Model the fold of this input.
Amino acid sequence: MNFTQRGIRSGTFSADLYLSDFNTNMIRAAEARGQQLAQDFSSNWQAILGRGIVWAAQTYRSRAEDIQEQLGVALVHVAQAQQSLEDSTAARQPQLGSLLVAAIRTDELMGRLTLLAAIESLPETAPVASTDPASWPEMPIGFLIVSGTILVVVFFAGLSVAARSREAKAAAAIQHNPAKWVYRLAA
Done:
């Protein structure tokens, strides 16, 4: 650009003299360079494009293998977590059942002891027949144990169904939008 400005100031270049020797030489040089670039492009474009396609295919294959490996590791972690949860739940169920039975028996024993203490502290009076209905009907201990056990089983069944429902929803979300889960770290 500086060369052109100097040429216009010195009078070597002029808009009126577009057919001057310098302008003609510059046009020929530009045309020759354009033809050389066109020849270089036409002789190399297929090789360059082929290398680009091969590189893209190799990159895609490598990334697909990495994604498959990450997905496999994530699935192993999920399976391990599910197994651990099932093992811990199975280990706690008998403990919870035993605890429930012990609580029922302790409560019944405490009720009996309270009743005995109340009876012993009462002064001796003549028995009076009552026709009022009992507020708590007598229930066999076996019925209480069975009903408590059934409640515990229903409770854990509800927890299990809720957990499986969450897992099914998560699996559906993963299958619905797998790109969202590809780069997520499994911890």
About this structure: The two ends are 61 Å apart (CA to CA). The mean pLDDT is 81. Residues 2-112+140-182 form one domain.
